[in-house]
Amino acid sequence: MTRPAIFADIAPPSTERRPVSDTRHGITRIDEYAWLRADNWQEVVRDPSLLDPVIRTHLEAENSYQAELMAGTADLRKKLFDEMKGRIKEDDSSVPMKDGPFAYGSSYKKGGEQPRYFRLPSEGGAEEIILDGDKEAEGHAYFRLGGIDHSSDHARLIWAFDDKGSEFYTLRVRDLASGAELADIVGDTGGSGEWDAANAGFFYTRLDPNHRPSKVFYHALGSDVSADRLIYEETDPGFFMSVGGTRSNDWIMISISDHETSEYRLLPASNPLASPALVAARETGLQYDLEEGGDIFFVLTNADGAKDFKIMTTPAANPERANWKELVAHEPGRLILSVIGFRDFMVRLERKEGLPRIVVHERSTGAEHVISFPEEAFSLGLSGSYEYDTETMRFSYSSMTTPTQLFDYNMRTRDRVLLKTQEVPSGHNAEDYVTRRLMAPAPDGELVPISLIHHRDTPLDGTAPCLLYGYGSYGMTIPASFNTNCLSLVDRGFVYAIAHIRGGKDKGYAWYDDGKRTAKTNTFTDFIACAHHLVAERYTAHDRIVAQGGSAGGMLMGAIANMAPEAFAGIIAEVPFVDVLTTMLDDALPLTPPEWPEWGNPIASEDDYKTIAAYSPYDNVAALDYPPILAVAGLTDPRVTYWEPAKWAARLRDRKSGSSPVLFKINMDSGHAGASGRFSRLEEIAFNYAFALKVAGRA
């Protein structure tokens, strides 16, 4: 197709070429833009002011360029922002969840960017603000709260914050009676703490200089942080680690995993000086999760070939694998996602025939029932409970047309109580919209699900623009849930579609396996097939489709840009993982060793090197007529480092044919998740949507 001249003819920033060669397995690559990676990147993540001035000048030039190209959309962006903000209940509040004498929840004040956390007596009484995020964020260009955990005696609060976007969190302890901060401040943590049974101290993970949670410590309240006891150290850089506890306060659980292997270690919450005991030693490919069940643990595992997982039980006092007994058998095609244990019940969230469902299991009889829902495509979430000894659990439900509904559900009587329906202050009539679930034929014959929403008045004759969203990695499933933001596109005649491509678990674990390592290209061809199917079914046309994805989904955007640029009118790549081969060859980066099971290890394996090199977006940029591309990044992002999209933008401009521009927008005060406030994040979404509207001819 002939691409229209949408943007002003403005020269992009000139990026100096400083070729660097790298030879692995006898194969040499040249990288002209490797210099954009700051040698002191670890320091920059913590303190952006330390960035090399030459690199900073280049990034600021990129921001000036994209701002100039998008200047004509300023009014549109303001209108989009106002619309999206108008759909948010500014003084919204969660439904408090009971925990003994108190019920805990969160809320926003009108105009507030950050959440406030509160509690009130369970039997009724005045609300007490225990943490005000807006107050804590004062004076910070970036501020994001991490984990919040009250002690079981309700006397103190552990809370965490990140004020750089680097995801190095500081932990603090607050006395809830006085509101005063205690002297117990711990830095460089993973973002949460777990109280011991006596509430005399807490467990936490500390990040090493490469941003890996390599150590679990115990901090006794009132003691110096330097005296914190090392509980466990993980020496394999390929594994992530976290620490949590059970609601009954019986156990502290250390979870260690990569993308295909897991391991648990346990210690009694009443004895923080105990050495953690191994449950089942890590075995490549063996995954298991533990959930409390009183004198047993429920074990969600893929052991013994249970690819879509099964549930077993094991004695809490002696949980090693030899004692695991099957409770819920493996059923191919039914993927069990998570388990929550209660005194008398066990609840599981599973996905069958592409849709989620909640199953309640009565422990005394083994009887089960499924909670039913009417729509053909929807999203479910388990909120669980603070309490273990209860018959009531909480879940959420939504669809692409139905605002989120929160329910309390009595597992014994099966009574369902609607607690809250998401309020859309500016108004929302579900009857104005149509949601559909399509199946797109992939090149190998697989059928790829597509969830979509459009306005009832949108003509389905191929003239509608479309935003097609995809992710397709790590087994992540993108839910068909209610999204107030996308309505700003839908109300302007867009079809908003989600491609449930391989690499996710939308159709079971095999759907994930068939979109990773040597099968990774299925992810990309599935997405392109979804675009073709939407055109074939007259929902849109190729010159009206804008593709969008972030992080690993941004890598998807880079790959489909190389493979089928003619299929898209524009591409939005947020924090895009586009320099896959270089990153997987750099074992000093935070996520590289843990990512090898997902992508392959090109350091150790020539085959893995060649597999990644064949699709890595940066390595496959060619003289193609690419559509307009918007890449978005954050300077302090430790997950997808800023230089990946910076290099990609420079190489695209250097090698592409055609006149479509490449825009690179970098937030100099944020990391992987973008802006931290709820409204400042809307400004970023409004920018992306304005780009989509512009390239689709609807601006």
Description:
With 699 residues, this protein is an alpha+beta fold. It is 19% helix and 33% strand. It has 13 helices and 37 strands. The strands form 8 sheets. It has an 8-stranded mixed sheet with strand order 30-31-33-32-34-35-36-37, sandwiched between helices. A 7-stranded antiparallel sheet has the order 7-8-9-10-11-12-13, with no helix packed on it. Strand 5 and strand 6 form a beta hairpin. The chain starts with 19 loop residues before the first strand and ends with a helix.
What's this model, at a glance?
With 699 residues, the chain is of the alpha+beta class. Helix 3 crosses helix 13 (678-695) and helix 7 packs across helix 8.
Topology record:
Blueprint: E1 20-24, E2 27-31, H1 41-46, H2 53-69, H3 74-86, E3 97-99, E4 102-107, E5 116-121, E6 128-132, H4 133-137, E7 144-150, E8 156-162, E9 169-175, E10 181-195, E11 201-207, E12 213-220, E13 229-233, E14 240-245, E15 251-257, E16 262-268, E17 277-278, E18 288-293, E19 296-301, E20 310-315, E21 325-328, E22 334-341, E23 345-352, E24 355-362, E25 368-371, E26 379-384, E27 392-398, E28 405-410, E29 416-421, E30 433-441, E31 447-455, E32 466-470, H5 487-490, E33 495-499, H6 509-513, H7 521-536, E34 545-550, H8 552-563, E35 570-574, H9 580-584, H10 592-599, H11 606-615, E36 629-634, H12 643-655, E37 662-667, H13 678-695
Parallel strand pairs: 32-33, 32-34, 34-35, 35-36, 36-37
Antiparallel strand pairs: 1-2, 3-4, 4-5, 5-6, 7-8, 8-9, 9-10, 10-11, 11-12, 12-13, 14-15, 15-16, 16-17, 18-19, 19-20, 20-21, 22-23, 23-24, 24-25, 26-27, 27-28, 28-29, 30-31, 31-33
